[in-house]
Amino acid sequence: MNKYLFKIVLIGDGAVGKTSIRRRYMGEGFRSDFLATMGADFAYLKTEIDEDFVDWQIWDLAGQPAFRNVMKAYFKGSMGCLAIYDVTQPRSLDSLDSWIEEARLHSQSSTEIPAVIVGNKTDLRAEVPNSIKTIDGFVKSKALKADFIETSAKTGENIENAFLKLARAIIQKRE
């Protein structure tokens, strides 16, 4: 049994559901009212994954352009990221490569930072369809080394699995 401390960042445009994903993973449930994150929000959680103990430092970064300049400090020392977009807002997917690049540059990692691309708000999918092929094409076109998962912070679908995928990617990189 190993014990790990993972500093991770939740990145993506404003209103894609980063805070809702974090809250759901922390066991705090879902809130339908939207409050923009100012700068960054921090959470700490202890979990057990694959018989290992993981202490998460989760930095939920604001997605609004006004906060982009102060983000660099929050990326420092991060070991992975959940790169989140809203499946009903295709523009939020287009900006993920710049978010992931910022995480890579400012995390001070000499190699690729493990990332999981998270398509959130699948509970609203009937309104705006978005295909898995689009995501696969995006990941390949950007030459990203990232896994992909779809979630719904509202229903809780795949929230735990997103963090599980990220933990496994970080552990694999360390080994």
List keywords for this structure.
6 helices, 6-stranded mixed beta sheet, Rossmann fold
Describe this structure as you would to a colleague:
- With 175 residues, this protein is α/β, with parallel strands linked by helices.
- The protein has a single domain, classed as P-loop containing nucleotide triphosphate hydrolases (Rossmann fold, 3-Layer(aba) Sandwich), CATH 3.40.50.
- It is built from 6 helices and 6 strands, in the order E-H-E-E-H-E-H-H-E-H-E-H.
- It has a 6-stranded mixed sheet with strand order 2-3-1-4-5-6, sandwiched between helices.
- The longest helix is centred in the last third of the chain and has 16 residues, at 159-174.
- The chain is globular.
- The chain starts with a strand and ends with a helix.
- The model has no long low-confidence stretch (mean pLDDT 85).
